[in-house]
Amino acid sequence: MAVLVMILVLFLIQSGVSQRNNTENNINTPIRSFCGRNPPINLSSFINNRNSTFTEIRRQLSSNGVFYARAQSLSSGDSVFGLAQCRNYLSTAQCVACLDAGVSELDSCLTGNGAYAFFDNCFVR
Q1: In terms of CATH, what superfamily is 30-124?
Q2: Fewer CB within 10 A of the terminal residue: the chain, N end or C end?
Q3: Residue 104: its pLDDT value, please?
């Protein structure tokens, strides 16, 4: 009787499959992004500060074994704070590529600060 119950249970169970890991082909799938609603005081100053902040974050993530970076730029009244975090199984090149994808996603956010982008391999704010 117990053998029949085990066979019945085995027929009713469906096998599960884990999510595929895209680290081999370096796919950075966007999950969610948001552009803030606080307008900058001076748009050109904001863009310069944002670009220098992302450049510094990219420089930090270019070091081997670094998966988290933050930077800020405070010149000309429009301060920008940024951070990025990659999953710890990524290579340095994959982490920087994910950051670049996040930065390109956030480049269109000129309406204000407070933007972020979630990808399957990293987070950029």
Answers
A1: Gnk2 domain, C-X8-C-X2-C motif (3.30.430.20)
A2: N
A3: 92
Whether residue 50 contacts residue 40, with contact meaning beta carbons closer than 8 Å, is answered with no
Helix (H, G, I), strand (E, B) or coil at 59: helix
Look at residue 52 and give its three-state secondary structure: helix
- Residue 43: name the closest of 80, 70, 72, 71 by CA: 80
- Using a CB cutoff of 8 Å and minimum separation of 24, what contacts does 52-55 make? 52/80, 53/80, 53/81, 53/82, 54/82, 54/99, 54/103
By C-alpha distance, which of 111, 108, 107, 117 is closest to 37?
111
CA 22 from centroid of its chain's CA atoms: 14
Distance CA 4, CA 36 (A): 60
Residue 5: per-residue pLDDT = 66
Would you state the structure tokens that stand for residue 65, as one six-digit string?
Answer: 């074994």
Which sequence spans correspond to the domains of the chain? 30-124
pLDDT digits (tens, 9 = 90+) for 59-99: 999 998 899 999 999 887 788 899 999 999 999 999 999 99
